[in-house]
Design a protein that fits this description.
alpha/beta; 247 residues; binds nickel (II) ion; 9 helices; globular; TIM Barrel; 16% strand; 8-stranded parallel beta sheet
Length: 247
């Protein structure tokens, strides 16, 4: 299994050595480890070296870290000097802050341009901003993943037409999740698994600290909804992720 979106950082986990061993034993092949700011990006690159390319760097400036908008040169330097698998997580978040939309869009677009320059995919965070996200992605051709996808089936189809994959995590396992229809209607080849660890643990661990091996519970739920085997879900989503990130 591949967890295409997690935040494995010392700030969240007391013992990352132990975590890595445990999740390897539970069949996790790789974890894409996403930053929100420059310091996290540095740590993520160090962790990738320490664990021999098991936790793979995805680096960028999250819209909530808009105060770091001038650090893109530093991010670019990291991309030049290290193996990085995507730019992320980047995007728009109008849930917490609504009065800096233009600034957020500018930071998002600049990072999309960076991804294009280095021929990397992007990992997109979009909260209460799906239409603006779509409008920007439509005008800037680059491939990417919509992390924690939570939109409609129709919107999912539009993003897929642009070349996007949907990142599906623990929210799918929650009671009355609105994602059921999306999973029913969208082909498995357009879906990748994620946890967003340490957040958003799937059932039966809701509320506890999450870890990448819990992608299994997301796979299980997808299998249930699509009426196929969990093995098939794992096999296909793993293949998609390997191809997508060019691992
Ligand atoms: Ni995240």
């Amino acid at each position: 299994m591949i967890d295409t979106h997690a935040h494995i950082l010392n700030e969240y986990y007391d013992n990352i050595d132990e975590l890595v061993e445990t999740i390897k034993d539970k069949n996790v092949l790789y974890v894409l480890n996403a930053s929100s700011n420059y310091n996290e990006a540095l740590e993520i690159i160090e962790l990738s070296k320490k664990y021999n390319n098991f936790v793979l760097p995805v680096i960028g400036i999250h819209p909530e870290s808009i105060n770091e908008k001038d650090k893109l040169d530093d991010i670019e330097k990291l991309i030049k000097e290290n193996k990085v698998y995507a730019i992320g997580e980047i995007g728009l978040d109008y849930y917490w802050v609504k009065d800096n939309k233009e600034e957020q869009k500018e930071l998002f677009i600049k990072q999309i341009e960076l991804a294009k320059k280095y021929n990397l995919p992007i990992v997109v965070h979009s909260r209460d901003a799906i239409q603006d996200t779509f409008d920007i992605l439509k005008n800037h051709k680059v491939k990417g993943i919509l992390h924690a996808y939570s939109g409609s089936v129709e919107m999912a189809r539009e993003f897929i037409k642009l070349g996007y994959k949907l990142g599906i995590g623990g929210v799918l396992t929650f009671k009355n999740s609105k994602l059921y229809e999306v999973i029913e209607q969208i082909d498995l080849e357009n879906i990748v698994l994620e946890t967003d660890s340490p957040y958003l643990s799937p059932e039966p661990f809701r509320g506890k600290q999450n870890n990448p091996s819990n992608v299994y519970y997301v796979a299980k739920k997808i299998a249930e909804i699509k009426n196929i085997s969990v093995e098939e879900v794992i096999e296909k989503t793993t293949k998609t992720a390997i191809g997508f990130f060019d691992i």
